Amino acid sequence: MKKMDCQTRCSLAEVQGIPMPEFFVSYWERVEKFQAFKGDLLIATYPKSGTTWTQEIVDLILNQGDIKKCMRAPTDERMPFLEWTESDPTLSGITRLQKMDPPRVIKTHLPIQLVPHSFWKAGCKVIYMARNPKDTVVSYFHFDRMDLTQPEPGSWSEYLEKFMKGQLAWGSWYDHVKGYWRERENKAILYLFFEDMKEDPAREVRRIAEFLGQQLPESTISGIAQNTTFTAMRKNPMANYSSIPDTIFDRKVSDFMRKGEVGDWRNHFSPEQNAVFEDQYKKMMANVPIPFRFEI
Ligand code: A3P
What we know:
Helix content: 40-55%
CATH topology: Rossmann fold
Structural class: alpha/beta
Order of helices and strands: EEHHEHHHHEHEHHHEHHHHH
Oligomer: single chain
Number of helices: 15
Bound molecules: adenosine-3'-5'-diphosphate
Strand content: 5-15%
CATH architecture: 3-Layer(aba) Sandwich
Number of domains: 1
Shape: globular
Largest sheet: 4 strands, parallel
Strand order of the largest sheet: 4-3-5-6
């Protein structure tokens, strides 16, 4: 196993006011100068919004539903993580990307203002997957409990407070979802929702395929939906992050493929926490009517 910069829980540092794991920040210049090419596709999300799910769907679409081809390597090798950069270049998303021939599929959690300029200059398409904030923060909490590279999450109530203040890695959920929403018609951004994917996966797979200019028969669309259910992905060693060692993902605490549901927030938010959250949500979202659903 290669030595990572962050062998234990890291602190956060800031890039243009956005908190991020400090080991990324040391190499920020590499991210800023990253060269995207025409045809590269960016999958952008706030953490825990269904990134891996979207990645698997996209890879299957681009490979006409061929699951064997999509099992050629783990997710982070097939579709590298743009801003994950550290001193050992072989572990860095950018190094992996530089070795791949365009068009590449690239994952990012960066808010829109930090996306390297070359993506816009090259006219790259972007798929943005958003998830309602209550389920997102619950998922993020359990992830930070098990991902030993992330800062110590503290108690659930402390964690929720940090989320509401935009103090978690990658910053404010509100700014993130609003940033991509506002630009979706000016740029080639397909804005999707986790809840819609749960409700009708085949419909959303079809939308993604159309956005990517892929004409697929209905049987392939439904095959992709079947191969990307929570149960199917949980069993797929190339899509469930089982390649990440237990020294980084403490699976005794939680699993990466945890529940994959809409509405799990009800098992975590107290009535008081929910009232305070609703109040903030109404204020923060008043000017941008993004149709989030908290249950389906
Ligand atoms: P939970 O923690 O609520 O289970 P990301 O990939 O952005 O880190 O998001 C991870 C979340 O998406 C986790 O949510 C995970 O279980 C869920 N997820 C991953 N694949 C999924 C799938 N095929 N169907 C539903 N949820 C999925």
